[in-house]
Write a structure and sequence with these properties.
Shape: globular
CATH topology of the largest domain: Rossmann fold
Strand order of the largest sheet: 3-2-1-4-5-8-9
Number of strands: 15
Strand content: 15-25%
CATH superfamily of the largest domain: Glycogen Phosphorylase B
CATH architecture of the largest domain: 3-Layer(aba) Sandwich
Helix content: 25-40%
Number of domains: 2
Length: 411
């Protein structure tokens, strides 16, 4: 195998990240480094500083896998972020990005969540490198990234200007200039994280072919080490892991636990909807908010849960927490929406629901039939090994790179 030089450009990257996209980028970067490739990640700490409430994380130590991490910072984080958000160009960091990409002599440049690290104009950077775009969100077709219209419902038709105002965000002026359409032609291959997400891009008018490459987790032996630890809760419990945002769908789940006395709900995560959820759960001892838990410490929470609940009411691009549960031999109960039916179908490791009554019935079935639950747990783990582990997905990614290079050579 010939070593290649890879660059990942992303707005958020651990520890300066909120959700699963930054962790997904980190896992792919580390997976390539472990295979002998030279990997650089360039991310923007200004955007995180503007959007994050509370103290900023300390600068990260050198990555043990050998990934080089370059953190962009300016003396005017709010202005830098606003200029990029409005113009779609890396106004403050343009010169440094140009120099970093030139000095790196990269063979492959990966664009991830680039909305605030450089916007669509960034897609023209990188010279002659093979360029891939990984659609961790629906930013290519949605100004709010998540196809969650008016901050209250899944989007099935564009009302973009009104919708952005509901989020109290300034409209992105560059979306009315044709800049994105012009820059998309710079990309050799677009990657969706699920078949569902590929279809959604197509429905909303995205004109380019997309290849599906899912998220993945460390290989089974690493996941097993992370599962070790004491049981975090003594009563039987169901588990939620994720950001506490309205789109994650916890509101009706919490209400369900008012008349479900046989188990508790552990909620792991934090977010802007947390205060509302705490009020909903007031007076209910069966709902426990754990707060944010580092990814490497989640193993015992998954391992001892009856099932992991995935109740999102919006269109996710994948569902990392589902495969995290599978990797710890825990089945899933997910809302019948977005990519979740696809993941449950491919794994055979869970159940689907639409209404609170269906959720309650699924929880009862899971808790009352330990043999059936154990079979789902085994199926989930087997599917994780076969579909969503590092040793499976990273080689597929390298095949996509090779195909993009061959396509350019013969064009």
């Amino acid at each position: 195998m010939t070593a290649q030089r890879f660059c990942f450009l992303t707005t958020f990257y651990p520890p300066f990240n909120f959700g699963g996209d930054g962790i997904g980028v980190q896992r792919l970067a580390r997976g390539l480094a472990k295979r002998g490739h030279d990997v650089t990640v360039i991310h923007d700490a200004d955007a995180y500083a503007v959007l994050h409430k509370g103290p900023l994380p300390a600068a990260s130590a050198p990555d043990p896998s050998g990934v080089r991490v370059v953190t962009l910072r300016s003396r005017v984080p709010l202005l830098s972020t606003l200029l990029t958000q409005q113009t779609g160009r890396p106004i403050v960091n343009s010169r440094r990005l140009t120099q970093l990409l030139a000095d790196g002599h990269f063979d492959v440049v990966n664009f991830n969540n680039i909305s605030l690290v450089g916007g669509p104009d960034l897609l023209a950077y990188g010279g002659d490198a093979i360029k891939l775009y990984l659609a961790h969100e629906h930013w290519l077709v949605c100004p709010t990234h998540v196809l969650w219209r008016h901050n209250r419902e899944p989007c099935d038709a564009r009302e973009c200007l009104r919708c952005q105002l509901q989020y109290r965000r300034p409209p992105q002026l560059w979306r009315y200039t044709g800049l994105l359409d012009r820059r998309l032609s710079c990309i050799d291959r677009f990657i969706a994280m699920s078949e569902f997400s590929r279809q959604k891009h197509r429905e909303f008018g995205f004109p380019y072919e997309m290849t599906v490459l899912p998220y993945f987790l460390p290989d089974p032996e690493d996941a097993q080490r992370q599962a070790e630890g004491a049981r975090p809760h003594q009563r039987p419990y169901f588990l939620f892991v994720g950001r506490l945002e309205r789109i994650k769908g916890l509101d009706d789940v919490i209400e369900t636990f008012r008349d479900y006395p046989d188990a508790d709900l552990l909620v792991v995560g934090d977010g802007t909807h947390g205060e509302t959820l705490h009020r909903l759960a007031e007076g209910n001892p069966r709902v426990r908010f754990v707060g944010r838990v580092p990814v490497d410490d989640l193993g015992p929470y998954y391992r001892h849960a009856i099932a992991m609940l995935a109740p999102s009411v919006g269109f996710e691009t994948f569902g990392i927490t589902l495969i995290e549960a599978f990797s710890h031999r825990t089945p899933v109960i997910a809302r019948r929406l977005g990519p979740f039916p696809e993941i449950i179908r491919d794994s055979g490791a869970g159940d689907l629901f639409e209404t609170p009554d269906e959720l309650r019935a699924a929880m009862r079935r899971m808790q009352a039939a330990p043999e059936s639950r154990a079979a789902m747990a085994r199926a989930g783990f087997d599917a994780y090994c076969a579909r969503w582990s590092e040793r499976v997905v990273v080689p597929r990614y390298l095949e996509i790179v090779a195909a993009a290079r061959e396509r350019r050579r013969t064009a």
